[in-house]
Amino acid sequence: MKRLSIGLIVACVSACTGNVSENVSPMAPAGPVTFVLRNPTSAPVYFAWVGQRPELDIEHQGQHLAMTRGCRMLCDEGCECMDCDAAPPIVRRLAPGDQHTFEWSGEWFELLACGTCGCVRPRSAMPGDYDIAVAGARGYQSHGGTGAWNGDLLTNASLDPASSACQATFESALVEGAQTVTLTFVCEQ
């Protein structure tokens, strides 16, 4: 009985002193992931561009993974609301038969309740089944202003919902460590 009590006390002290980690996983994270975005069609495809990559729609186990932290503080920094200016929308053109390669580190942001604005905590994608998509279109809409093509990027523009929709998808497993995934656009006629 004495040994059992000592064992329980040691377990409790370890847990209460922070020696037990949250979300411990014996697996290494999935990533980095190198994506190859392909346009095998005979016409350009346009897609939304955010930061240094296409706007990715990633779901894992029914949860949508936020790829950017938006206008929210990291939870370790506090819960105050931030005053952020929205970046102008950007569209990228992918020429017929062309491809674009970009990398995702595997980091995503979990939104947590904190004050009135919430906060985010960086997380790492773990190995498992994922649904990954990049939405595209055959056309774009310019929103005026000073939008001008800079190579294959156009600022102050968005996808034209009246044009044929395109989508590049991946529905499979991501594994531990570095890997390459090909996303191929398929467009409506």
CATH class of the domain at 28-64 and 86-104 and 127-187: Mainly Beta
First-last Cα distance: 75 Å
Secondary-structure class: mainly beta
Main sheet specs: 12 strands, mixed
- At the third CATH level, what is the topology name of the domain at 28-64 and 86-104 and 127-187? Immunoglobulin-like
What share of residues are in beta strands? over 45%
Fold blueprint:
Blueprint: H1 2-16, E1 30-38, E2 45-50, E3 53-54, E4 57-60, E5 63-65, E6 90-94, E7 99-104, E8 107-112, E9 119-124, E10 128-137, E11 140-142, E12 149-150, E13 153-155, E14 157-159, E15 165-174, E16 177-187
Parallel strand pairs: 1-16
Antiparallel strand pairs: 1-7, 2-3, 2-6, 2-10, 4-5, 4-10, 6-13, 8-9, 10-15, 11-14, 12-13, 15-16
Task: Describe the model.
It is a single chain. The protein has 189 residues and is mainly beta. The chain has a domain at 28-64 and 86-104 and 127-187: Immunoglobulin-like (Sandwich). 8% of the residues lie in helices and 47% in strands. It contains one helix and 16 strands. The protein has one helix spanning 2-16, and strands spanning 30-38, 45-50, 53-54, 57-60, 63-65, 90-94, 99-104, 107-112, 119-124, 128-137, 140-142, 149-150, 153-155, 157-159, 165-174, 177-187. The strands form three sheets. Strands 1, 2, 3, 4, 5, 6, 7, 10, 12, 13, 15 and 16 form a twelve-stranded mixed beta sheet that branches. The protein has a two-stranded antiparallel ribbon with strand order 8-9. Strands 11-14 form a two-stranded antiparallel sheet. The model is unreliable at 1-24 (pLDDT under 50).
